[in-house]
């Protein structure tokens, strides 16, 4: 299982990438929505680990 710190770093990378894509294409672009879903999954993974 990945460590909390590793997952938090992944979350920050995904957040930064989503922000960059949003600035480039606008908030409603499919690429931004895809990045948002990836970020949501990673945040859910982090929450699940923290609850154990």
TrEMBL record:
UniProt xrefs under InterPro entries: HLH_DNA-bd_sf, Spo0E-like, Spo0E-like_sf
GO biological process: one example: regulation of sporulation
One Pfam match: SpoOE-like
Taxonomic lineage from the root: Bacteria, Bacillati, Bacillota, Negativicutes, Veillonellales
Domain of life: Bacteria
Organism this protein belongs to: Lucifera butyrica
N-terminal signal peptide: none
Gene Ontology terms for molecular function: protein dimerization activity
Gene3D superfamilies associated with the record: Helix-loop-helix DNA-binding domain (4.10.280.10)
Name of the protein described by the UniProt record: Spo0e like sporulation regulatory protein
């Amino acid at each position: 299982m990945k460590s909390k710190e590793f997952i938090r770093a992944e979350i920050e990378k995904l957040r930064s990438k989503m922000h960059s894509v949003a600035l480039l294409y606008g908030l409603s672009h499919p690429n931004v929505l895809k990045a948002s879903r990836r970020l949501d999954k990673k945040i859910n993974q982090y929450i699940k680990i923290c609850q154990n």
